[in-house]
Amino acid sequence: MASKLELKDLIRPDNFIDGKWVAAASGKRFGVTNPATGEVIADVADSGEADARAATDAAARAFPAWRDALPKDRAAVLHRWHDLMLENADALGRLISLEQGKPFAEGRGEVLYGASYVKWFADEATRIYGDIIPQQQRGKRMTAVKEPVGIVAAITPWNFPFAMIARKIAPALAAGCTVVGKPAEDTPLTALALVLLAHEAGVPPGVLNLIAASRENAVSAVASWLHDSRVRKITFTGSTPVGKYLARESAETLKKLSLELGGNAPFIVFDDADLDAAVTGLLVSKFRNGGQTCVCPNRVYVQSGVYEKFGDMLAKRVAALKVAPGTDPDAQIGPMINARAIDKIARHVDDAVAQGARVLAGGKRLTALGPNYYAPTVLADATPAMQLSCEETFGPVVPLFRFDDEAEALRAANDTPFGLASYFYSQDIRRIDRVSRGLEAGIVGINEGALASEAAPFGGVKESGYGREGSKYGLDDYLSIKYLCQGGLE
């Protein structure tokens, strides 16, 4: 197969199990649609328990050889996979735009972002160190070594169909684990294209297996992994209710879990902030992927002294954003993923307006473009009683809350069961230290709206989950520590 592929070459509608493309055991299929038009892109295998079990069987057979492969050999495969991602970044970016809706520039950017994790963990594969424990008794040697945890089940969302699964598979393979995976039903084609490139890069049969499933069959497919003792780890990105379900259902076999769950991120603008920088940072963090990210600011707290000025500055920038299909080269915001997403956004805005919010920009569906478009929106005079205060909108809506002092801002920011990301803007170095320590979140942006990096640990606290992705810490979630005690040495 040639390294550089066209879009049509990347669209694979079948499951990938044991190095082969196979239909679902039931023969069923479901349609994957373009959210910009509603047109069906492909009819994809609709998998169930039998397909999930076949994937696990393949992963179990492949595990011993992959576990025992030299770290440098696993790294070489991952480096080849990374190179193929870069060679095919344009086609992959178009595929992401086609099935997820984000503008092509963002889709291509997602490919580069996801590829950065593959490169990072390819390098980390050769740096899995253990420890020699200082001698406690004569004649005994104590060491700690790290070993792959075993078969990993990766379950990923639709908002970043390339990056989310790449940053789960890469550390798993680097550690010596084998993988079974299921992408979201809205966006399976990108994930299937990813395993196509992995196969070409030399990932052995059975080491990486991927199945697609509709919303109706996903529960039975995943249940097979939850109850199978051979699957030793679940890694999931998605909603908190689903994360809790996975934790409960996998408890019987005490699997290791990494859960990157929902967020309700605060964004605080103090009156000593650089307002131009704060507006730009908010645009970057909020409107990426049309607001459909787990680290998007959901509640924007602005200090009273700059509240009106900040709102005016923000509204002008937001009103100028170009909403269009992802195929439009000038598009800055594409369609939302589906009708359910649009209905939730509209419900939140309507509820806020009914309770006294002022619309500074947007506030309406853009039906002339299609059924899944909503105007980027800024709402002033938001209050804690509004739905958008306690529910993640997951769309291009910025509610502005007013506050008077630092203590009030911290109380409001932390008044949520979630704790994934937080942001704040201030030029007071003492305040920066206080607020950084006071925010209850796994990730804090300080005068910065773009947080993610393959070199940094990504994850939350409270009901936003546990475990970390990326960085040197991200590999530990795929490893077990074995203590070796050797006696009789004297």
UniProtKB/TrEMBL annotation:
Spell out the catalytic residues: E260
Which Pfam family, an example, fits this chain?
Aldedh
Per the record, the GO terms for biological process are: gamma-aminobutyric acid catabolic process
Q: Where is the Aldehyde dehydrogenase domain?
A: 21-483
What molecular function terms (GO) are annotated for this protein? succinate-semialdehyde dehydrogenase (NAD+) activity
Keyword field contains Cell inner membrane: no
User: What's in the keyword line of the UniProt record?
Assistant: Oxidoreductase
Q: Which family does it belong to?
A: Belongs to the aldehyde dehydrogenase family.
Protein's name in the database: Succinate-semialdehyde dehydrogenase (NAD(P)(+))
Which organism does this record belong to? Caballeronia terrestris
